[in-house]
Specification:
By secondary structure, the protein is an alpha+beta fold. Helices cover 58% and strands 6% of the residues.
Length: 363
């Protein structure tokens, strides 16, 4: 199975010193395809460079891979510079900030430029009203406001920035969501300035917030290996105190089931040491989580339903979400309640837009 070779290369990239045997050209192409689907081209390539030449991929595959990795490295450097620039901009108007996920995680990898980057998520203090005013004062175009962040238009350097006015998107379950936000707020003062020129949150914050992030995406669509590798890297860089504190709160924060699933996956795919685990592994949910990650790739974007038309995809998504109830009933229940409430609330808006569209066609 090409998955086993993919897993082994990820482990080598993350610091394992295990050996790697020669595989066929066709198997290398399958590994390359999987790394592409999972946004792990850069990480896997960092493992390839550690292999003896006689077991590396054919030269043409290596050249293609190396070309893509140069782009990944360049974009990582750009994101680091932009993260530092945005940090300074908010500091200039008297607001604290720190970088969530992305560049904050990348700097912990053995090869700090190997993580395939996306956008910049930056938390800024003050709440929605104050953050919105700060963005206006700084001359930013008005962005789309979601429940926890403002999505800014792509900037002149091609970078997408999401400015968070809440520490996390949180859980779907409103009870555990409140507890999670409260816990994260206790860690807001523990951010650290790093050499890259921006602040990063405490490890306890990162462990809880990113576990919730994985759960949220798993519940509503899909999750990929970029987030799973991130979490493995976080655990390897955490202290026993960090893990003990977060592990003791998993049930009250509504993260017990996803944590058990993730510990099983990381144990079986990355050979995670038991000393680094937050809780006991959950084989049933762990296999489920792994299956979803392999089937859909990054955030489920390679799943079969993505190729369907809008109506079929909508029905498939509703069935998909409902099927997650055996994984975590209350998370899925509240996900469905909140979805249908928003769906009903949006009906008048959709009717108004439809009428405007018909009028424009008739003119």
């Amino acid at each position: 199975m090409h998955y086993e070779n993919f897993y082994k290369l990820l482990r080598i990239a993350c610091g394992s010193e295990e050996g790697f045997t020669k595989i066929s050209d066709s198997e290398w192409l399958r590994v390359y395809d999987e790394a592409t689907r999972q946004l792990e081209l850069g990480v896997v390539y960092s493992a390839l460079r550690k292999l003896p030449r006689d077991v590396q991929p054919p030269m043409e595959i290596m050249f293609q891979w190396a070309s893509e990795v140069e782009n990944i490295k360049g974009f990582n450097e750009l994101l680091n510079a932009e993260a530092a620039r945005y940090t300074q901009m908010f500091a200039d108007v008297g607001l604290r900030s720190f970088i969530l996920k992305g560049p904050a995680n990348a700097r912990l990898y053995p090869d700090v430029f190997s993580r395939q980057p996306g956008d910049i998520d930056i938390w800024v203090e003050g709440g929605l009203k104050k953050v919105r005013q700060a963005l206006k004062d700084l001359g930013f175009a008005k962005g789309f406001a979601a429940s926890h962040h403002i999505h800014l238009p792509t900037n002149e350097k091609g970078v997408i920035v999401e400015v968070h006015f809440r520490p996390s998107s949180g859980n779907w379950n409103p009870v555990s969501a409140r507890r999670l936000q409260k816990f994260l707020k206790t860690e807001l003062d523990n951010a650290t300035l790093v050499p890259e020129g921006f602040y990063v949150p405490s490890m306890k914050f990162a462990l809880a917030m990113q576990l919730s992030h994985i759960q949220r995406h798993f519940t509503e669509g899909g999750i990929g290996f970029r987030q799973l590798v991130d979490y493995y890297i976080l655990l390897k860089n955490s202290t026993e105190s960090d893990r003990s504190e977060v592990g003791s709160r998993l049930k009250t924060l509504g993260l017990w089931r996803i944590a058990g699933a993730l510990m099983w996956l990381l144990q079986n795919v990355f050979h995670l040491d038991e000393k680094l685990m937050l809780c006991e592994p959950d084989e049933f949910r762990g296999k489920w989580l792994l299956g979803v990650a392999l089937e859909g790739g990054n955030f489920g974007r390679y799943g079969a339903e993505e190729q369907m038309n809008f109506v079929r995809r909508w029905f498939k998504k509703r069935i998909f979400v409902f099927g997650r109830m055996k994984f975590d009933f209350w998370e899925v229940f509240w996900r469905s309640v909140l979805y249908w409430r928003q769906f009903v609330n949006d009906i008048p808006v959709r009717i108004k837009l439809r009428k405007l569209s018909i009028r424009n066609v008739q003119r």
